[in-house]
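Task card 7
Instruction: Convert sequence to structure tokens.
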Amino acid sequence: MLAIFVGSILCCHAKELLLSPSQRVFLEDNCFDCHDSETHKGGLDLETLPFDLKEEMSLAKWIEVYDRVREGEMPPKKRPRPAPTDVYDFLGHLAEPLVAADRAWQMADGRAMLRRLNRQEFENALRDLLQAPWLQIKDILPEDRVMYGFNKVGAALDVSYIEMGRYLSAVDYALRQVVARQASRPEAKVVRYYAREQKEFTQNMNSLRLSYRSTFPVLGARGQPDVRLGKVPITVGAADPETREQEGMGVVASSYQPLEPAFDSFTAPVAGRYRIRVCAHSIWVGPGPSKMWWLPNLDDISPGRRSEPVVIYAVLLPNLMRRIGQFDFTSEPAVKEIETWLLEGETIRPDAVRFFRSRGSNDRNPLAKEEGMPGVSFRWVEVEGPLYDAWPTTGHRLLFGDLPLEKPEPGSAEQVELISRHPDADAERLLRGFLQHACRRPVGEVELQRFLPLVDHALKGGASFVNAMIACYSAVLCSPEFIYLHETPGEIDDHALASRLSFFLENSAPDDELRGLATQGVLGHSDTLRAQTNRLLDGPTSRRFSDAFLDYWLDLRKIAATSPDSTLYPDYYLDDFLTESALEETRLYFAELIRKDLPARYIVSSDFAFVNERLAVHYGLPPMEGVALRRVALPPDSFRGGLLTQASVLKVTANGTTTSPVVRGAWIMGRILGQPPRPPPPGTPAVEPDIRGAVTIRQQLDSHRAQESCAVCHTKIDPAGFALENFDIMGGWRDRYRAVAPGVPTMAGFGHNGHKYLFHLALPVDTSGQLPDGRRFNDIREFKRLLLSDEKAIARNLVRQLVVFATGEPVRFSDRIKIEEILERSGAQQFGVRTLIHETIQSDMFRNK
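Output:
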């Protein structure tokens, strides 16, 4: 019946669509004046537009008509408004065939198309398969295209022959990384590396007593001018172990060229797991002469007056850095320990991140006082590893089982030789076991015989057994069985459900427990699916989901895409401590919403935040010490709370120099309210804020909105953006805009780069606005309250975002009723975020292709 119904409207036009005279009158009175065959404003001719809902573009056009009438954009506000009952009747009549046609599409082709794993999913799947969490292959692969806000949509994840070549290279690299390099278990060495014996620490030590850009010797908590001047050796060395333990190298500036101290005597011999211990303490460095008190006296050292945050980076020289740990060091020397994975060749660099970054001879430390400034003395780093639970590793045994490893013949270029005395039998046995682990559903003889000839072909071509098997394994891992998610139209089977659930909540392939439940045929049971959802949300890899989801929903992947302008925002320039803290705040906050099933309204506003000492200063909260972020209660009148006013969000919606209410407003409309504005007409110039401070962005946009073609969208976009204008490019509070103009007195102070402020405070910020429905607000607090008057809208948007991320397809027209059903089931839990995730997974949209 559905096919007959859709077929009956295949060739209709708009004039023939509506069955009652009142419906025809609606189009004629409200639409044809602008959208007939003569005017066709905006390229839309409703008079002759076919009502061919089997044609994708036609279906999309009629859905757009439905949405624009529903949202009040059509007819335009300058025309008399149709009666609400007429609008209701028109939409109700139009919705029925649209829903029917969309469901017919899904019945024929499935809701989601064949989808390739994106590069992050592919990397995670290889890491988990080979039990090698340190593998870095994502950047070998091309950047994934983004559609509907995410990198998970099948239509955007195509594969070219060039991309396939990259996949083969990435897989070959990953497989060889887990092959054992020696016959016996490597010794887990424990080696201590003293700061005074590191080139990267000592090469910046000079004879200047007053210098920010110098490391300097510290013994216990006092200076050593004789060592600094080169009168005595840099270290007593092993001859005096007791003194050696108290020797350190001090800094009063954060790491930045040319001051980049690192424990460069150590480089990780192989990729793997290591235990790292750091010994350091805070110090106080006395001031320079009275007329130059802001300079450090590197000979005047005493115990630190507070704790100092230190971040530990793994560095692949010259400049590839990964954050691997963080500590707070007090004036009492202490040893801090982390266990982490390192890549082959990486070394260790500690950084006193609260300190400024010296950028020139005339700079000044903003932390300097007349009595001195803070510093940190690094004594040593101790590295234990590589650490192995078993030898050979799990990854090696997956590839080569228990085949013996032997030392090669003298003169061989190989470090180890893997012995296969029965290559054909070994190849079949190993490949059969590998396929069972690599493929996400049961495999049989067909798959085995498809890949096994590759081994024979390689061996006959002169390849070693290892290389022949790697070639075969590479083919498996680059085959559609591994790279693509396989689902058939209709209700997906338990193995496809396991993959869909795992790639949603772990961003990787299903683990043994999920596969086992799928094989038993019980994963699809509602209670089992709910239990597994909770297990994954509470598991050690849950951050994979939340981090990947936030990277695209909130654009957090762009956190480092722009840098604060060094002239307008020197207090943020080069402040990695602030940027990294801001990113982690949002991740911890969203994880808290999931963990405690907090209501979706917390996306907009809350009474708590996650901050450390840097964010507390940035947000104007009570001072605290420490690098670790922790949950704190916000003052009752705080402008903070929720995602909208977090520094990470405010940074990714600015360009580093200025803020734009248009950009931020469009971001809120699309990412928070689920009402993304249409793109501006081609050739529309951007509105560039005036950094001279002569006019405000509001004044510029007022003239912009005066144009009829611009007003339709900007009336919706701009108010949300104006509500955030009190927040600068890094989310700091402001009452006035910053500007740079010659002859105007500048603000007093020095930036994080040590440079004197060159900006002045210009025109005041106006954050008032009016929503399209006429409701007014004066500031961000009032704007948040207006948004929260419709909590369901906030929850609805979150569900829509989750559906795209989880299924790889946007919410279709016929899915809208299913979204409302999810909201209906979640209302009793106040639209809790965890509840919304559960209900999304239990829905037909998730359980069907």
